[in-house]
Amino acid sequence: MSLLIVGSVAYDAIETPYGKTDKILGGAGTYIALAASYFTKKPQVVSVVGGDFEKKHLEMLKEHKIDIDGIEIKEDEKTFFWSGKYHNDMNSRDTLVTELNVLGTFDPKVPASYQNSEFLMLGNLSPDVQRKVIEQMTVRPKLIAMDTMNFWMDIMLDELKKTIAMVDILIINDEEARQLSGEYSLVKAAKKIMEMGPNYLVIKKGEHGALLFGENSVFFAPALPLEEVFDPTGAGDTFAGGFIGYLAQNGEVNFENMKNAIIFGSAMASFCVEKFGTEQLIDLSTDMIADRVDRFIDLMNFNYVKEL
Amino acid sequence: MSLLIVGSVAYDAIETPYGKTDKILGGAGTYIALAASYFTKKPQVVSVVGGDFEKKHLEMLKEHKIDIDGIEIKEDEKTFFWSGKYHNDMNSRDTLVTELNVLGTFDPKVPASYQNSEFLMLGNLSPDVQRKVIEQMTVRPKLIAMDTMNFWMDIMLDELKKTIAMVDILIINDEEARQLSGEYSLVKAAKKIMEMGPNYLVIKKGEHGALLFGENSVFFAPALPLEEVFDPTGAGDTFAGGFIGYLAQNGEVNFENMKNAIIFGSAMASFCVEKFGTEQLIDLSTDMIADRVDRFIDLMNFNYVKEL
Predict the structure, then answer these.
(1) What's the predicted TM-score (pTM) here?
(2) Which residues form the domain of A160?
(3) For the residues of B23-42, what is the DSSP string, one character each?
(4) For residue A136, what is the domain's CATH number?
(5) Which residues of chain A approach chain B closer than 8 Å at the C-beta?
(6) Which of A158, B32, B184, B230 is 20 to 30 Å from A21 at the Cα level?
(7) Total structural domains within chain B
């Protein structure tokens, strides 16, 4: 089924204990679309970039069968730029530079050809921008998923709650879930957040895996234990892209199928962190993904037979 | 099969955001033995207490079919005492008081009737005390498991490594694994630690679950997401007790069976944290344990069928 992704397409400069990059391709929309492109046909992207955005990057997205008709190019402006430095444990980072540029006035326009998309993934953006997208859809998508971050909870919580009330799945990390709910326990946090509207909630815990709540059930998938985490940038977006891409591919919206989607999202995220930026995501094959999913199954699979 | 447990039997005073206790029963040996008692027949305990140790606590252990012949009572001395206060997130605590008392001169004596134990669990103690136990066994147990802590890495690392080289499974937490190996990545840490001797390694990650390494495989079990963690004291020891108790019950020492043991250990730990100290552990039934294990299976179970 068709998938529409709204999110930033950007440039990042990243420093980790393993090295440093110049401006490289980044942005939530980019990671989500690349990850989803391995599952669903022609994911559509609504975003905005500046005149400095390189042709080769648009070409690369097209080569991955990503529909970029919805990426507006503002020739006289500059692309969103973020620069950050990770600490030794890779679990915390300092933002060095945030230049909103074109993203500061982003007014998303959903092309007519995208109007019937059945799956909508709203990457982290201002909640009013996210809502504008939902309101432009003439037919409500079968499934709307959204990401957000603590920044929006700090400065526009009411707007954020309005948008959350309109979606089916919220995909956030543990710190965000705690801040949004005011509860430390993730079980209690999940209950409060689902009372805000979404029927499903995914709580990402980084290297500690992800929890799926919904239909009075809970499911947990670990992150793959890796020898090295080279660069965590985009891992959460890649997870979301694999998750929504998998769902859109087979179209089944229920808890059982979302479990599989979580496994595929986790597998995609495990690739993302192995190289800088989108480098590893660009070069995957379905065989590599299937092998990685097998490793997840080995990691989680047990055959309890004995009775007490 | 028979199980011998060596570990502290102690008194604790605990403060958490939910309340405060006077001196209550605690100690690694106590938690391990209580948890194991639900799986294996008559676990044997080697430990030492003072004249202040209450008869009712010895009786309670006996009622749980725990063999206490190996608990030496030094009438003129006092039982090991620890007091601690947990912070609001329950993930960190301050030690307020540590009175070693009888534990300071603990010279473990394995009774003749325990000599043929097939499973040996060494709770956290000085590594030379742990080694003295191994050396007293006339027949090497089929499986020796041990716990330790960062304190011993700080003050007697060489002794510790000698003891680690003699055991089959090391059961430690993530911080301890990192300190022992000098590696941040748990995958790398596991490799280095298994080069020190053990064929299996369990890394406990508290609320983030546990990893099992061995036989060129890795398995992960989550912790049960709980509404409240009331008191984390003893959770790691309870995990170890459920783990080793389950293994000793059916006697199969291999990776597949250890996966089940990890699930049962996690289930037992999830009970432990629901009340103060050993309170919840004392009152379990096999039905309650089976229900809890079912919740773990639901949490982890998925049926991936679709092909890419």
Answers:
(1) 0.93
(2) 3-300
(3) SEEE-HHHHHHHHHHTTSSS
(4) 3.40.1190.20
(5) 38-39, 88-89, 184-188, 205, 208-209, 211, 217-222, 225-229, 250, 256, 259-260, 263, 286, 289-290, 293, 297-300, 302-306, 308
(6) B184
(7) 1
